[in-house]
Amino acid sequence: MVVVGAGECGTRAAFELREAGWNGPITLVGAEHSRPYERPPLSKYVLTGSEGNVEPPALYEDGALRDAGIEYVAAATVTGVDREGHEAVLADGRRIPYERLLLATGASARRLPVAGIEAGGVHYLRSRADAIVLRDRLRPGARIGVIGAGFIGLEVAAAAAARGCAVTVIEAAPRPMSRAVPAAIATAVADRHRQAGVDLRCGLAMERLTRQDGALLLELGAPREAPGPAVQRLPHRRGWSGPAAEPHTYTVPRPSEALPLAFDTVVAGVGAVPETALAEKAGLAIDNGVRVDDRLITSDPDIFAAGDCCSFPHPLYGGRRIRLEAWRNAQDQGRAVARNMLGDGRPFAAVPWFWSDQFDLTLQIAGLPDAAAREVVRDRPDGVTIRFGLGDDGRLLYAAAVGTGNAVAKDISLAEILIARRAVPDPAPLTDPAVPLKTLLRQAPS
Amino acid sequence: MSTWIAACQTDDIDPEDVIPFQHEGVGYAIYRSPEDDFYATAGHCTHERMLLCDGLVMDNTIECPKHNGRFDYTTGRADGAPVLVDLPTYPVRVEDGTVFIGIG
After folding, report:
1. Is the Cβ pair A407, B16 closer than 8 Å?
2. Contact state of B55 with A64 under an 8 Å Cβ cutoff
3. Which residue ranges form the domains of chain A, and what is each CATH number?
4. What is the bridge-based pairing of β-strands A272-274 and B3-9?
5. pLDDT tens per residue, range A352-373
6. Which residues of A touch B47 (CB under 8 A)?
7. B85: contact with A, CB 8 A cutoff
8. CA triple A169-A174-A177, angle to 5 deg
């Protein structure tokens, strides 16, 4: 068994192969030098250092690789797959034979279209090495420009603000996190950023980036495709009703002056691109990532793909083909794909789950926010609002909330179970904070 | 030899739920199972030190509120990634409606 990619997905898969009873050799090939680690802290406490620990946790305990008999090949690139001969080919010419191969190659940060010397001035955040370089730039008073108000951009902005930087965030869409988060939750998070002094500007795109006297000058303009497709889907066209369809409180500030913004450091968080080069070269089907079926099998029955690099049909969402860039999905698919590589043959149907930490806020989402026909809300006495998305048939398709600390965790976890059970909850108890969500589980057969 | 500390009243915890308890600067989590049995574990997740009392209890499982690591709170056993290290557990005794945990 050979696993390409030693991130969350590949590493979990390697251990699960052993756990699930595979007795033969397991080889895990990773591109980075370091021991496999957790990525989510890179945009959180690794940048702020606030928890006295700036190293991301390792993905396994000391000695665990040896105990599991996994061969870890670090700092290596798989450059080819000999499908006929069943061998993975490394850059240095080594050939590793496989019976089954897993592509867990992940995704890489999408690059901004800047050329020349300016391109070197833009930071991205994907690896531990990226985080260490960026952390050094987040000095008090530093002018930090963040391009993109998605999870990564906003987490970087929050970390930079916490470290005393002057932070400006530029987002092309009319609101932050338009791809992944219901509007009302994005509003709450945007308010928290502005309260912390972050200058958050939406509806603006980078026009040009130049370097002058040691500073990066950013010129802004209207987004080229205004608004982008992700924005148009939200929320009116989908016929949402309830609070989500209320007029947004987002303002779209226009540049108050023609002068460009000057930054010491520019960080781009403009999405991720699935790492499909190896799969393409091997002639595997590609469709917004490595195309796999519901068992996570590629167009070659002996090659599997999982995690950020693959697109798969999700049975909870009508078999719609999706690709997830999420830690939890990487973990879930890593475990599931290992068992399927050993012949388990079970469709992957875990509920998508996302979270983000920004300042003292945590937001959690179970399910797919763009899948629902209408939204109903539960206003809890502690001020937290849980938003539930229901389908045309009344089925629960997502739940999303933001709150301080871990205030939203229990309700989102319960919603996740309801979504997995394809529950059609009665909206009355769903919206009544006096009715514990747990009681709804009893009406939803498992 | 354990020292028995009165942690709470049985009524303080709903069935299938958890509450926090502090003693001499150390955090604990006290559980009431669906069968009305009481258990105690360390108060923080072994993964990233999150407070477990904010997490969901289902049957014998506590789920960390942050990254969804799961433990069997009756044994402390970690259920797999992201939690790799078992949770310390403490003996519990119930007397006249008071829940005592044994520490030390």
Report:
1. no
2. no
3. 2-108+272-341 (3.50.50.60), 115-268 (3.50.50.60), 360-442 (3.30.390.30)
4. unpaired
5. 999 999 999 999 999 999 888 8
6. 57
7. yes
8. 65
Yes or no, beta carbons of B47 and A61 under 8 Å apart: no
ipTM greater than 0.90: yes
Question: What pLDDT was estimated at residue A37?
Answer: 96
- What value does the mean pLDDT of chain A take? 90
3-state secondary structure chain A: CEEECCCHHHHHHHHHHHHCCCCCCEEEECCCCCCCECCHHHHCHHHHCCCCCCCCCECCCCCHHHHHCEEEECCCCEEEEECCCCEEEECCCCEEECCCEEECCCEEECCCCCCHHHHCCEECCCCHHHHHHHHHHCCCCCEEEEECCCHHHHHHHHHHHHCCCEEEEEECCCCCCCCCCCHHHHHHHHHHHHHCCCEEEECCEEEEEEEECCEEEEEEECCCCCCCHHHHCCCHHHCCCHHHHCCCCCCCCCCCCCCCEEECEEEECCCEEECCHHHHHCCCCECCCEECCCCCECCCCCEEECHHHEEEEEHHHCCEEECCCCHHHHHHHHHHHHHHHCCCCCCCCCCCEEEEEECCEEEEEEECHHHCCEEEEEECCCCCEEEEEECCCCCEEEEEEEEECCCCHHHHHHHHHHHHCCCCCCHHHHHCCCCCHHHHHHCCCC
Nearest chain A Cα distance for residue B62, angstroms: 10
Q: Are B71 and B56 in contact, with CB atoms under 8 Å apart?
A: no
Provide the CB-side half-sphere exposure for A196 (13 A, CA). Answer: 27
- Give the distance from residue A431's alpha carbon to the nearest chain B alpha carbon, in angstroms: 19
CA-based nearest distance A409→chain B, Å: 5
Are the Cβ atoms of A331 and B47 closer than 8 angstroms? no
pLDDT in tens, A131-189: 999 999 999 999 999 999 999 999 999 999 999 999 999 999 999 999 889 999 999 99
Considering only alpha carbons, which residue of chain A is nearest residue B69? A328
C-alpha–C-alpha distance, residues A25 and A322, integer Å:
32
Residue A89 has pLDDT above 60, yes or no: yes
CATH numbers and ranges of domains, chain B: 3-103 (2.102.10.10)
Length of chain A: 446
Q: Do A409 and B48 touch (CB under 8 A)?
A: no
